[in-house]
Amino acid sequence: MGFRWFGQARSEASVETKASATGKIVALSAGAGRVVWSPRDTVSLTRAGFSGNPVGFRAVRLIAEAAAAVPLLCQDRERRYDTHPVLDLLRRPNPGQGRADLLEALIGQILLSGNGYVEAVGEGAKGLPAELHVLRSDRIAVVPGTDGWPEAYEYAVGGRKFRFEMAGSPDPICHIKSFHPLDDHYGLSPMQAAAVAVDVHNSASSWSKALLDNAARPSGAIIYKGVDGQGSLSPDQYDRLVTEMELHHQGARNAGRPMLLEGGLDWKPMGFSPSDMEFHETKKAAAREIAQAFGVPPMLIGIPGDATYANYAEAHRAFYRLTVLPLVSRVASALAWWLSEHMGAEIDLRPDPDQVPALAEERDQQWKRVGDAIFLTDSEKRAVLGLPPLSEG
Which domain of life is it from (predicted)? Predict the structure, then answer.
């Protein structure tokens, strides 16, 4: 028996000595006490920042819808066209989409991933594509060539891949990307810049939901203390008190109605603790950071506590001037250069700020200022306003 005890002790001691010396460090590094961020790939960011976040969703939709509604001007070095095959193609790019649908999808992809891809399908009038389709950026991979430029684009879906060769001319794919200082082939999206703020905002929403599910605070508590120190009501007293509360103090009709307490009853209100209020302010600060990353004034999304702009009209003008028009100009220029290669003749697409209602006051001032400049000729005034020169006739 003593032998068995000695052997058992040796066995237990040997098991204890087999524990890894780095086990505690590994356990701590697995996530305890560390900040856990969501993945930074396009699909995860889209799900967390667009599909699962109301601020990111509204910012992307606001920019994409506003940009898709901006009228485009088509012109070359000599004249401006009211009708043109490029305008006809953009008016109905494919059987399932119109101009606004195509531009909204393209700009939405750029905002969410930093990259937008347009595919040319078939051949239509004057060498232009018969159809235009926006491809999902999470399914596209750039294949760089020996010189560093993309030699092909691979589109992968359902375990199958299709390769778009970029060796010939014109190119089958138009790749529009945002500026990325650390990547040669892919753009940096505003959603990536706002990823930390998105995680904070989503975590705050999850915390609020957990508070409601597990520890929601009532508006107050009724405390009973009898004359002789007893702290419990009789069943009849309890039922009478519950009935009085339901009849006279619950519902919208009884909101703000004063309570009449008797018989040792006392009312103790309950509210948010200072830490709860600080957490709420953190959520609003994260919402502002998300809106700022996309270039949307927080006032337009309804975020309270923002006084950056004097009024809503000023915020609206700044939104178009600083966010929408630069984005539309970049997308339109890229499409115009790509379609010019297909057509064999250079054309230019640019937004028409004169038809943007939010900028009407600024444009009126500019037209008046240029029109009153007596030191400018008519041709110079047209050049300042972005108009093509008049024909000789």
Answer: Bacteria
Q: What is the pLDDT of residues 183-217, one digit of tens each?
A: 989 999 999 999 999 999 988 888 777 766 655 55
Question: Beta strand pairing status for 173-177 and 160-165?
Answer: unpaired
Q: What are the backbone angles phi and psi of residue 137, rounded to the nearest 5°?
A: -70, -25
pLDDT of residue 382: 78
The residue to which tokens 């990823």 are assigned: 195
Query: CA 181 → CA 174, 184, 194, distances in Å?
Result: 21, 8, 17
Q: At what angle do helices 274-294 and 195-214 cross, to 10 degrees?
A: 150
Strand partners, 156: 161
Q: Tell me the per-residue pLDDT of 137-173, one tens digit each, with 9 for 90 and over.
A: 999 999 998 888 899 999 999 889 999 998 878 899 9
Handedness of CA 262, 263, 264, 265 (dihedral sign): negative
3-state class (DSSP) for residue 155: strand
Q: How far is CA 362 from the centre of its chain?
A: 28
**Phi-psi region at 386: left, alpha or beta (left = phi > 0; alpha = psi -120 to 50):** left
Query: Are 190 and 111 contacting, i.e. CB atoms less than 8 angstroms apart?
Result: yes
Residue 183, helix vs strand vs coil: coil
DSSP label at 350? E
* Alpha-carbon distances, residue 238 vs 243, 267, 275 (angstroms): 9, 15, 34
Nearest-CA neighbor of 279 among 210, 357, 377?
210
The one-character DSSP state at 148 is S
| C-beta pairs of 356-360 under 8 Å, 24+ apart in sequence | 356/70, 356/320, 356/325, 358/313, 358/316, 358/317, 358/319, 358/320, 359/317, 359/320, 359/321
Contact 118, 135 (CB under 8 A): yes
Farthest CA pair distance, the chain: 120
DSSP state letters, 78-121: S-EESS-HHHHHHHSSBTTB-HHHHHHHHHHHHHHHSEEEEEEE
